[in-house]
Amino acid sequence: MSDKAHLQELRQAVQIERLSHWFGKGDMRRKVLQSISMEIAVGEVVLLTGPSGCGKTTLLTLIGALRTVEEGNLKVLGHELLGSGRKIRQKLRRQIGMIFQGHNLLRCLTAEQNVQMGADLIQGLSYRVRRDQAREWLRAVGLADHMNKFPHDLSGGQKQRVAIARALAARPKILLADEPTAALDSVTGREVVDLLKRLAVEQACSVLMVTHDPRILDVADRLLKMEDGRLLPTIS
Question: Using an 8 Å Cβ cutoff, are 118 and 166 in contact?
Fold first, then answer.
């Protein structure tokens, strides 16, 4: 690799070339991603739009090392995921924050304890520091008065904010967010995306956010649109 190519690679958190993916087997096998190629720079905020079922969430889960790459090249934080082993994928997942619509909170833990699970991914921190970071992020998403509540005592929007705080508490190098403002009112939604933008700037965290919310498009460094499993560049 030339010095110029190596420098370019260091500037990219995600590099994708001709990535395709299928669901199902036999006669039910269906292609859901069709030769996707794109890059996400370090510290860049990219918003991905498109109709439901066009492959947006599948793309996020592949970048997040939650699915096995079937065809094409997908390099995340310098690691090629095509043909990668379990240890590489586990290592990557510790550096990627994920916010999905299902919240995925542990019902037996309080909001604070759920968020602390994110901070637990950072090595070398004492319990007290991890606890304090969890509380700091809950305050940042407006849940200072709900730290000791369990998920069943929280509204859908509050659960979403806990999930966002948990992802941020891990100090991720990449943040993947699937409709993070869907369950939030306009004011809280704006506060959350501004927080994600700040994370990108201050911690050089790359953000890929799937959204249908036209109110937050201005936060993006770049907008991309997906249709029928194909990625179409829009206005940068």
Answer: yes
Rounded Cα gap, residues 99 and 121, in angstroms: 16
Q: What is the sign, positive or negative, of the torsion defined by CA atoms of 20, 84, 122, 43?
A: negative
Other beta carbons within 10 angstroms of residue 186's beta carbon come to 11
In angstroms, the Cα distances linking 99 to 34, 178, 209 are: 24, 6, 9
- CA gap 95, 106 in Å, rounded: 21
Distance between CA 73 and CA 206 in Å, rounded? Answer: 19
| Phi (first) and psi of residue 226, to 5 degrees | -120, 140
As a whole number of Å, the CA-based R_g of the chain is: 18
Angle between the 156-169 and 186-203 helix axes, to the nearest 10 degrees? 0
Quick: pLDDT tens for 26-64.
888 999 999 999 999 999 999 999 999 899 999 999 999
C-beta of residue 60 within 8 angstroms of C-beta of residue 16:
no
Please list the residues that pair with 75 across neighbouring strands.
15, 80
